[in-house]
């Protein structure tokens, strides 16, 4: 089943890159590409600079095939692209999953062995230690993001596998991406019944933890408003959370300015739709 989930997540992504040149030259060029990618990433709110970052991270990953760092950078940048440009989401989430799986196979070879053998997702995730936590997070997020872009049938096909991977990522390092594993689990559990381990109480606990881990990351408030507040039809909570996002001063968290800008845009979109949501 896990292999099927990964196949669905990767279906929309690009073919593998061509082999890298000689080791010495590739290492130097790869490091230069990674540095250039990070410089462009700092300006990711500018679409042209985001494209530059994506290109440079992909180049670095091609030139340094045994290094997880450019793959993780590429996964994160593609995830940002998926949120910033919804029309590209299906392709971008596939690229997130592709880069993350490659990084995870480097960090935890046992994971790949279980996947290739058709093993269960929890068994594969159990082979991952803290070194693979970030890759596991991006893989789970990419799998679910890609599934959502494809439709409900795809979501149903990957939800259990993605949840197992995300739960393991949260166990290993819940701080990744500003409490990202907890934020994702909160969103996903809000859509599941209590009998399946989901429901409002479980979702609320995850989202509260995510807020504690990333207090300046406005994405968690948007997720809570869009999922839990809507589920509970708590209009007051919905408006309060999104009002906080809109009012947040980006200067308080310069490193998250681009992510918080996207969160504000989403908050404004949701507020404009509130009469249809409640």
- Residue share in helix: over 70%
Radius of gyration: 18 Å
**Beta-strand content estimate:** under 5%
Provide the succession of SSEs: HHHHHHHHHHHHHHH
The CATH topology of the largest domain is Serine Threonine Protein Phosphatase 5, Tetratricopeptide repeat
In the CATH hierarchy, the architecture of the largest domain is Alpha Horseshoe
Question: Mean of residue pLDDT?
Answer: 92
Count of folded domains: 2
Largest sheet: none
Give the helix/strand class.
mainly alpha
* Count of distinct strands: 0
Helix tally equals 15
Q: What would you give as the CATH superfamily of the largest domain? A: Tetratricopeptide repeat domain
Which regions have little confidence, pLDDT < 50, spanning 5+ residues?
A: 10-17
Q: Report the span from N to C terminus.
A: 37 Å
Question: Which CATH class of the largest domain is shown?
Answer: Mainly Alpha
Shape: globular
Write up what this structure looks like:
It holds the Pfam family TAtT. Keywords: Signal. Residues 1-16 form the signal peptide. InterPro entries: TatT (IPR031823), TatT_sf (IPR038537). With 278 residues, this protein is mainly α. It folds into two domains: 1-173, Serine Threonine Protein Phosphatase 5, Tetratricopeptide repeat, CATH 1.25.40; 175-278, Serine Threonine Protein Phosphatase 5, Tetratricopeptide repeat, CATH 1.25.40. The chain has helices at 2-10, 23-41, 47-63, 68-84, 89-107, 109-116, 121-125, 133-150, 152-172, 176-189, 200-213, 219-231, 235-247, 257-272, 274-277. Helix 1 crosses helix 9 (152-172), helix 2 (23-41) runs antiparallel to helix 3 and helix 5 runs antiparallel to helix 8 (133-150). The longest helix is centred in the middle third of the chain and has 21 residues, at 152-172. The model is unreliable at 10-17 (pLDDT under 50).
